[in-house]
Amino acid sequence: MTKAGKLAFAFYVLSFTFGGNLHLYAQSQSTLEASYRRANAAYADGQYQQAIEKYEQIAASLPSGIVYYNLGNAYFRLGKRGKAILNYERAKRLIPRDKDTIFNLKVAKAQNIDQFDLVKPLSGFSLLYGALHPDEIAWFGLVPYWIAALSIVWLQFSQNRPLRRVLRYIAPVGCLAWLFSLLLVSLKVHELIVPYAIVTVDEIAVRSTPDSGAEAIALPLHEGTKIQIHEERRDWVKIYLPEENAGWLPADGIERI
Amino acid sequence: MTISGDTQFNRLQPPKLKLPPELGASYGGSSSQYNLSGGRIAVSMTWTYLLRGKKAGKFILPRIQIPYGGKTYTTDPITIEVLARSQKPGPSESRANTFTDTFNGGVHKVEAFVDNTQPYVNEQITYTFRYLYNTRIPSLDSPKYTLPAWTRFWEKTLDQKSNRREVVDGTPYWVAEIRVALFPIAAGKTRIEPAKLSLPTSVGFGRIDGLKVLVTDPIEIDVRPLPQSGKPATFTGAVGQYQISAQADRLELEAGDGLTLRVQISGQGNIETLTPPAIPALPNMTVYDPKITDAIGEVGSEIQGRRTYEYVIIPSKAGNWTIPAIAYPYFHPQTESYQIARTVPMTINVMPNPNGAIGTTTTQTVQSDVRVLKQDIRYIKPDSLKLTDQSVYPHKRASFWALQIVPVIVVLATWLYQQQRAKRDFTQLRRQQAAKKALSAIEAVEKQISRGPAAAFAALATGLYQYIGDIFDLSPTGLNPELARQQCEAAGLSEAVTTRLVEVLTQCDYVRFAPVAANPTDTENALNRAKTAIYAIEKERQNID
Description:
The complex is a heterodimer.
Chain A: H1 3-17, H2 29-44, H3 48-61, H4 65-77, H5 81-94, H6 99-110, H7 126-129, H8 134-157, H9 161-193, E1 196-199, E2 203-207, E3 216-222, E4 226-228, E5 231-233, E6 236-240, E7 246-250, E8 254-256
Antiparallel strand pairs in A: 1-4, 1-8, 2-3, 5-6, 6-7
Helix pairs in contact in A: 2-3, 3-4, 4-5, 5-6, 8-9
Chain B: E1 2-5, E2 23-37, E3 40-53, E4 57-61, E5 65-68, E6 71-74, E7 78-82, E8 98-101, E9 106-114, E10 125-133, E11 144-146, E12 153-157, E13 164-168, E14 171-184, E15 188-192, E16 196-204, E17 207-215, E18 219-223, E19 240-248, E20 252-254, E21 259-269, E22 285-287, E23 291-299, E24 302-315, E25 319-323, E26 327-332, E27 337-342, E28 346-351, H1 398-447, H2 453-471, H3 481-490, H4 495-513, H5 520-544
Parallel strand pairs in B: 20-28
Antiparallel strand pairs in B: 1-3, 2-3, 4-7, 5-6, 8-9, 9-10, 10-14, 11-16, 12-14, 13-14, 15-18, 16-17, 19-21, 21-24, 22-24, 23-24, 25-28, 26-27
């Protein structure tokens, strides 16, 4: 490998390791961190609205799990439970194993009027990757993949018969593990791009058609309820209700996760 | 028949019975008992006879005389009435609660009773189950008993007494007894179902002949409700006879320090179901939930004991504070009235805390576990955490794809390299062995020169073209003298060496394809020239490489 090639390789590895944050320095890291500290100070002083504005600014530039978590806390303190749950859900996507996020989400949802979510159950694979970020799954897959590749390379040179026998097994197993990880990554990413949303207003009517004059076909949903969007049409979104019924919600009463 | 005295009996023979002919008798054995009383030994000796009426009627058991120590002791006559079978079952007859062992000659029977069939709710009654027998147990297996299910009672099994002798209706029995203290849970009529005894029986010489199940009679109980009249407002259901006392571990302390107040309720009744006493309001003091300890025993068949409540009390303000009398109402079933036990009031002298600290105590832990008063969200993440963009997923990263592709490139590059290397190695080997193979081929021709010049020259040509192909990494097929010259010149061989090789090849072609006669000498010359040419080429090749 040439020197330039080595440098390019090192760049890619570093880029991957540090979560792909090499592209985001439109606003400098130090500025964002200073803003984060000011937001935390405002929160500590009970200036929750001020904290919310700063956290929102940071999150727009730098989607970070801890920023969403703190933002959720600030909304919760202001009594905006729907917004709090929305931001805890956003944080959970980015830091899925964070115990504080999981706990606060549970506390907030416990105060919901609707003690249910209108979402399809996750696939069985979610048990495998539920608590992992897609990057982590990709990493787990790359390890056997690289081991398989090195085994194949080694096979080209080694004259040691027992070693060659072992390498002949390692290579296909590593390749299978890699393919499986790619499957998991794709499922996880697919799961993350499913359009979920949270009801952010006190109460929202479920109508039979995307029309504010249409008949309400279910009891209204309340703040904090998680829904899955199945279709978007102008200012309306379609959701599925139990027993295959479908209903429409005005888009201004919900916010996508 | 029992003889009692105050000295030891010596060689006393069993008395002889003179029975009327309507009564049969069998000797049941003897026993003696010694007691120390007033410094003297009291002795009694008992002989047991089992009498069996042969027909109904009244019969007189005559006086029995026992001579001892020069005197004759005489019993009073006993009148025995033998009833007909239909009138009353006799001891030899089997009933549900009785089994007559005809083989061993004796009776087993069970009975159950309570000491009070009209108790108040939560008043103790004692249930007694008795197994009586006056013959040996006909098996090594012990009889097994089953008591009824106490569905409407709170129950506690009392200590069991050891088996004892007892005369029942004139018949001596061994008696095994089980007693259970029962506390009715609710008012109303209820029934205690029969208890059962499974008795292994035999008909002879230890042979087990199945089980005989003896069953007691059911017992009807009428549980009375507690009276409403006179019931104190603070009554919480205690029934029995109780006393209450209170004691503080210190009467002087500083504000913020703690004291332990022990309130003890003792007496007869269902101690384990007592409710805590109502502690009066204590201004300027915090009272924590009590720690409860029980000590329960029995006297006779009555459950009694004490329950102690240990309250930790922390005064928050200096002053002389009074802990008023603590009242504990209970219902006394013997007097059928409500009574109230009370503690003696006590005064606590609380001094100001010089440190101003409130709530510190060194007495003991005041909570057995942490109680969450209100569920709340956890606090925000700290400033020290590093912010990173976590929203870009792998498929959007160039690095992800690079790391997927790089192994493929590495594997392919390695494979191509290995292919090239293998090919290079083959060419090298071919060149190294070219001269050797060619000279071997010429030697083979020399050995077969007798087959004729045409065949010899053909074999020589094949060997030389193979040699040329090997050293120049070419296929020998299609080579001719002119191509051989071109390859030699291109490889930098000298013209003399090239010409020598080409001349031999040309001569071979002439002999092979033209009608030119060749003699053996020409063939040998050609072979020698060929060898010379090969040697010369090899020498020049070494110089060139």
